[in-house]
Amino acid sequence: MEKYDPARTKNWYILGDSTTEGVHLIEQDVNFNTSMGGLLPEQSQESLTHMSHVLDVACGPGGWALELAQAHAHMQVTGIDISSNLI
Question: Would the pTM of this model clear 0.85, i.e. be above it?
Answer without folding.
Answer: no
